[in-house]
Amino acid sequence: MAFWKKSEDPWDVDPARARAKREPIETPLDTLRDWNEERKAKAAEKQAELEAQPKEVCPWCGREMERGCLQGSRGVYWYPGLRTASAAWWGPGAIEESFQVDDEGDFLKGTYKTAWYCRSCKKMVFSMAFAAAEAPPPQTGGECTAELEGYFRDAQEDEEEAPS
């Protein structure tokens, strides 16, 4: 474009001419901001519900207990006796009388168990979803191996039956 045809040059701006006002555009940041406000409101409602619940009293010292949760990366288990090296290595599921305690939450967010803690006597209390006698028995190593072998056999049979 020639320098003498300034009227055709898109880069020349006439300061006397007012620019047209644009309508504001909703950006993804605005959407995220709205979502975050909704999330905060839901969390505040949930916190208000928790605070409105009756406080637990420590059965040992009679003081008010603090609400919290137990959680672990591979589940929270109870098993009888002292912790042994084999229990630490194989996990509590290998011990016959053990059972999983964390029955709240889900797979994606993680499982946990709500518990109340007394800071004065250093004790914790939680409610069980079932009686200890009703706890489902854990699988032993041999049962796990047999189950996996069964899945493997089923997969091989499905491959043989599938048309090529």
Question: Can you summarize this structure?
Answer:
With 164 residues, this protein is α+β, with helices and mostly antiparallel strands. It is 32% helix and 15% strand.
Instruction: Compute the CA-based radius of gyration.
Output: 31 Å
Stretches with pLDDT under 50, minimum 5 residues: none
What is the makeup of the main sheet?
4 strands, antiparallel
Strand content: 5-15%
Percent of residues in helical segments? 25-40%
Return the structural class: alpha+beta
Keywords:
single chain; 164 residues; alpha+beta; 4-stranded antiparallel β-sheet; two-stranded antiparallel ribbon; 3 helices; 6 strands; 15% strand; flat
Structure description:
With 164 residues, the protein is an alpha+beta fold. It contains 3 helices and 6 strands. A hairpin with a 3-residue loop joins β4 and β5 (110-118). The chain starts with 27 loop residues before the first helix and ends with a helix. The model has no long low-confidence stretch (mean pLDDT 76).
Topology, please?
Blueprint: H1 28-52, E1 66-70, E2 77-78, H2 85-90, E3 99-100, E4 104-106, E5 110-118, E6 123-125, H3 141-161
Antiparallel strand pairs: 1-5, 2-3, 4-5, 5-6
